[in-house]
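Input chain follows. Return structure tokens only.
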Amino acid sequence: DGHIFNNLKSAYNSDGKLIISVSVREGLRTYNNVVGVVNKYNMGDVWNNKVTLLYDENGKKTDKININNGSYWKLVDGKWQLYGNSKKAVSNVFYENIIFPNEKEVGINVIHKSVENKFFPVCRNGKWGVINLSGNEIVPCKYAVCKLECNAIKAFSSYDALEFGDTYELYSYSGDPILSNNKLIEYKPTYSPEEMPFADYYNGEYFSLVDKKTNKVVVPFCLDYVGICSDGLVRVGYKGKVYFINSNGEGLPVEAYK
């Protein structure tokens, strides 16, 4: 099926054929049937592991990684450029590093599977941001780390993979910062199943629901908690009571929407 299996120092295709082996100081990154070679490899730190060479599943050198509907990333002199399905560059910007789907860092997903091959954390001049398939930087390259959650983008001003409590700014996938009183604040979105129609945000006191497709606020910050989605209904808490709301956000007392 073309899958590649990677034990950090050697990569094999699904037929058991060795694609490439690297030295002790080198490492491998694998994605979309392509293997990337990293000269100075730091296990668990995808943010600083830069790829210098690419090999396809047959062990031949290549310069591109196919991502979605004919779009691809091209590696040119150690830097990445995004191309569209017309085989023309959709952005004139070259990036020194990029995070691809399924990559992990210290066991934590950097990209949620619901946004694979649609958005990419990218590094320019030592700072991270996020680019979409149209070549637009929806999050500017000015952060230490950017992680793609199922319902929002976390942009960290400082980051330590082994420490908890790093603060971050939160962006929607349309590139809009999440604001409160005209100031960017720390939010902590809770986990939402992929079928859930809403993104849920927390302002330190209450939860809010935003329609994933339109980015419009469905329920303002008034919910005690947001639970799981089942049979098209989302379980929420409001003023100490449990409610179930539908995909239109209906089901709460009238005053909750004011």
